[in-house]
């Protein structure tokens, strides 16, 4: 598994000031994808335990409210194990900070039964659809995408949107 980049202070991807990591590799090929440089599974850099340690270290800063996981596609089967490992390590170390993740997969069709969901606070799900692009959306690129409260959705066994 590989990743594209880490941002030490990100104010665009989720609430507050965050650390973000962009995983490498995506097969969805959405029209006018915002991040085409992340599609090739051979690009970027190797994702290792050192990468996880580096992210955790950056998150120790009190000004950092959480971790954002984007891509590429962090939930693609190639990347899911590493994404889960990172999310688990983060939540164990920072139970009071939150994790947001962006994925082209649907939460209720693919992700709700995956281990990674145990550790995520919010998932923005669904592929980017250029025809439904709306620049006024806060955390999404297109109107079909949903901002989901993961833990409430698991508790209630239905998709609950984040408020
Ligand atoms: S899922 Fe995300 S990274 Fe993949 S093609 Fe679509 S917009 Fe781009």
Helix share of residues? 10-25%
CATH level-1 class: Alpha Beta
What's the tally of helices?
A: 4
Give the termini separation. Answer: 33 Å
Query: Can you tell me the CATH superfamily?
Result: Aldolase class I
The coarse overall form would be globular
C-alpha-based Rg, rounded: 15 Å
Write out the strand line-up for the largest beta sheet, numbering strands in chain order: 3-1-2-4-5-6-7
Question: Low-confidence parts, pLDDT < 50 over ≥5 residues?
Answer: none
Q: Domains counted in the coordinates: how many? A: 1
What's the overall average pLDDT, rounded? 98
What are the secondary-structure elements, in order, as H or E? EEEHEHEHEEH
């Amino acid at each position: 598994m590989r990743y594209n980049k880490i941002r030490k202070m990100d104010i665009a991807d989720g609430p507050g000031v965050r650390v973000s990591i962009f995983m490498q590799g995506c097969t969805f090929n959405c029209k006018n994808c915002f991040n085409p440089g992340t599609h090739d599974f051979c690009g970027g850099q190797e994702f290792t335990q050192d990468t996880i340690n580096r992210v955790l270290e950056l998150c120790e800063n009190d000004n950092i409210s959480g971790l954002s996981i984007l891509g590429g596609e962090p939930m693609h089967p190639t990347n899911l194990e590493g994404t889960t490992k990172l999310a688990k390590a983060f939540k164990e170390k920072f139970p009071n900070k939150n994790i947001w993740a962006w994925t082209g997969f649907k939460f209720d069709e693919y992700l709700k039964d995956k281990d990674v969901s145990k550790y995520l606070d919010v998932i923005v799900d669904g592929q980017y659809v250029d025809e439904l692009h709306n620049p006024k959306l806060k955390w999404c690129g297109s109107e079909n995408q949903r901002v989901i409260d993961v833990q409430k959705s698991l508790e209630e066994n239905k998709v609950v949107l984040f408020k």
